Amino acid sequence: MEDARQIILISPTGYAHHPGCHHISPEYLDNPAWARLVLHGVAFPPVDEDRPVTVDIGERTWIAKRRCPDC
Q: CA-CA distance, 5 to 44, in Å (whole number)?
């Protein structure tokens, strides 16, 4: 099982969150509008306009340019 600190959830609005963040309802975890990225052996990185997190899943690309301030 992955450490939650090594998982990034990217919202449809471009925010990066940890699982368990109080901003995220449990149904978002399986919502196809959200991306889930596992960073094996790496902690949650800085996320901003200059250091976006991008993930491609199938035909879709998610980009987080903001990190949740509570995560």
A: 6
pLDDT score of 2 more than 60: no
* 5: three-class secondary structure by DSSP: helix
Cβ contact 24:15 at 8 Å? no
Nearest alpha-carbon partner for 18 in 33, 40, 37: 37
* Per-residue tokens: 25: 């309802």
Per-position DSSP letters for 9-58, written without gaps between them:
EE-TTSEEE-TT-TT--GGGGG-TTSEEEE-TT-PPPP-BTTB-EEEEET
Question: What pLDDT, in 10s, does the model give residues 15-50?
Answer: 999 888 888 887 777 788 899 888 887 778 889 999
Token digits for 41? 């052996």
